[in-house]
Structures are given as structure tokens and as C-alpha cells.
From TrEMBL:
Superkingdom of source: Bacteria
GO biological process: one example: protein transport
Name of the protein in question: YadA-like family protein
Assigned keywords, A-Z: Cell outer membrane, Membrane, Protein transport, Signal, Transmembrane, Transmembrane beta strand, Transport
Domain Trimeric autotransporter adhesin YadA-like C-terminal membrane anchor: 279-339
Region (Disordered): 76-96
Keyword Protein transport found: yes
Sections of the chain in a coiled coil: none
Amino acid sequence: MIVKQEAGGKVTFATTADLKADTVTVGEKGEPGKDGKDGTIGVNGKDGSAVVINGKDGSIGLNGKDGANGLTLKGADGAQGVNGQDGKDGLPGQNGETRLVYETKDKDGNTKTNQVANLDDGLIFTGNNGELNRHKLNTLVTVKGEGVDKDQSAAFQSASGNINVKADGNGTLEVQLAKDVKVDSVTANTVNATTVTAGNTTVNTDGITIGGSNGAAPVSLTGSGLNNGGNRITNVAPGVADTDAVNVGQLKRLGGDMAAIGKKAYAGVAGAIAQSSIPQVTRPGVTGFGVGGGHYGGQSAVAIGMSSMSDGGNWIIKGNVSTNTNGTVGIGAGALYQW
């Protein structure tokens, strides 16, 4: 007998042109012969049987090297599905299906039972919430990021070195985010952090500290107040309210006003000196006219005055007027009764 396997997997059994057999019957059926022996049809490989079709128990086996059983499929007794090597029913599959089961030998010669999966078995995925996603083999599984559409995904720029996927060897892939995340920018409505550092600026629970440049002392604003590190505070707007800070311009104007007031005050003092320097009459019944001058703090003044004493010498009256270099005029008058 010739067994021929074609390229498409078709196997053809045919007899040779010169048939050799124990008996050949042609014509009418003769007397029954002896019971035949159970035989096998084998396709032998180089190192042992590759395929064995056993006529005794109806099994088809794939034998390994040196005659070791590799894979045995059995359909004896009309059982549905395919049975194991020892004629046992295959293991049940999903939804009560009968599994295709094959047995192999391990390196120690022990029998190992294996199930053949099908497309409906698929894969099962889960996440932190514990919900299960079941997918058949050769079906689409979508993994996507939140809040990114198709157009945004095309222009998406990622920051490398921040995400790691770690396998634990037990079927779990853990997605890890780096403790120190490196990105170009962050946009957030609220940032909760113990310390934030940007260049030489540090913001923490104590306040904010800005490192000085070119050896200058740092500037800090904390609960204890402002420490400007000996640096000038610049670009201060003029104060308006009573509790506002004033700038140097306002202080200069105030200084100018104080200087002007000082000049006026000094001129007034000079006028007082000039008026008080005018002598008064000393004899009863006479009237006198006098002149006086004064100088104080760079300011000068002149004064004129008149005084008179009654005939009895009991009354003395006087009056004077002065002018100073600041352009102001001073007037004074007085009376005295003596006894």
C-alpha cells in the first residue's frame, strides 16, 4: 500500500501494481477464513513513527522519537468530541463545550494533559477597579488615554523616562509613574506640594525664598515678614491710603516741602529778632520811633516800631512791623501799665 500526502494536506491510500497479500478473493464469497490480526497503517519517519492509525482501538496517534507517544487523538465508542489517550472524555470547556485534549510526556516520562484553546477562549483583562474585560482571540482590544482625541493623539508629545511597565511574573503588569517626573511644563488649577523649586526660587510651607544673583543675599517672604536681603525695593507706586507705603519721589517732595517750611520759619525768627531789637521810650510824656534788624538760619529781617509813655509814667504802649527775606510781614503791638 502507498500513502501519499499532497501539498494541500490531502492523504491518498493506494495499492501497488504488484499486490502481495496472504489471500485474494475474486468472484463469489467463499467460506469464511480465519480471523485476521489487528493491524496498523503507519507512516514512518527517520527516527520513528510519525503517524499511526490503529485499527484495534480506532485511535490516531502522533508518535515521538524512539516510539514515545507524542500526541494521541481518540474517537472510540462513538463518543462526541475527541477523547484522551486512555479513552477518557476530554476536559469540558467554556459553556459546557468538549475540549480537544492531548497528552504528552515530560522529560521524566510522566503523562501531561493539555487542552487546545479556541477563539472563544480569548483573554481576560482587568484593572484597579477589578472589572473584567473579556475578549475573544483576534478581536480588537482598545487601550486609550483619557481626554485625548484622535487629532490630539497625532500631535501628542510624550516625556520619556517617566513611565515604567513592570511584570511580576504572575500575570500582572504594573504601570508605574516615576517618583521624580520630568516634563517641560505643567498646567493645573491647584497644586498641593510641600516644596516647589524653580531655578533658584523655592516655595515651601515656610514661605518663598529667591536666591540672590551675582553673590547678592537671598530675598525671603515668610510668616516672620519680608527679608529683602539688603536689596532695594524698586518700582513702588506712590502711596494713596493711610496704610500705603511711600516711594522716594514722595519723600523727596516731602523733603522739599519741609525745607520751604524751614525757610519760612527761619525768616519768621529773624523778623521776631528784628522787632524785639527796637528800643522803647524810657521817659514819661515822650514818644519814640525805632528800627531793628535780625538774622537766623540764613534768613534776615528788618523792623520799625514806635513806643510812647504817658505823662505820669504809668502807661507804656508800642507797636512794630517787620519784613523778611522770605517775603512775609510780621506785625506786633503791646501795652504796659506800671505803678
